[in-house]
Amino acid sequence: MPHSFRSGLLSSLLLVLLTLQPLSAAEISAPRKAASTSQGADATGAQVILVLGDSLTEGYGNTKEQAFPALLEKRLNHSSRSAERHKFTVINGGVSGSTTASGLSRFKWYLKAHPSILILALGANDGLRGVSVQQTRKNLADVVELALKNRMKVLIAGMKMPPNYGKAYTREFEALFKDLSHSYQIPMIPFLLEGVAAHPDLNIEDGIHPNPKGHEIISRTVDRYLEPLL
Description:
230 residues, alpha/beta, five-stranded parallel sheet, 38% helix, 11% strand, disordered N terminus
């Protein structure tokens, strides 16, 4: 973690993230494009990618259009990988305050959109709330197993905790994502906020959540690790 990601920053993070409560399944906005009966494609024939996450995915403090899932969709559809317009649909499955505990139920709800790729970006709030590493791993594993059962490709986003939580916990927390990647043979992004965390000019006023420039960097990071799955 960057050295500047210290206790003062942690206090702001706890204040912002821990007071945000997860929404119920009924409150989660529906996918922007209707699903078809074809596995991995929407009604337009575009490949569906689901990003299941928390406030970092939702784009807290920004519009949905400024959040990295929307930016990723634009990047994919304006690259050489897209032979025709709207070849990719990226669903923003982020809910502020959510932990891995709600991951499986939320993921089941999104299966109606027939995604072919899952980007699993949950876990940050678990660490901040002191949820046991074992429980967080189990919750994430349940989502991964269901995705694989549905013949989906999975990309897991690694998370890190500030050193204030102690060397043992921060080490175990970071390792759980690597363990899942190894155990299920799925690729991972080492750190979702790489190059963004603790950079004031890349975050909104709370110093924690990325601003549009920060989300642009995240979209590039995700795109780089997503490439082999497309």
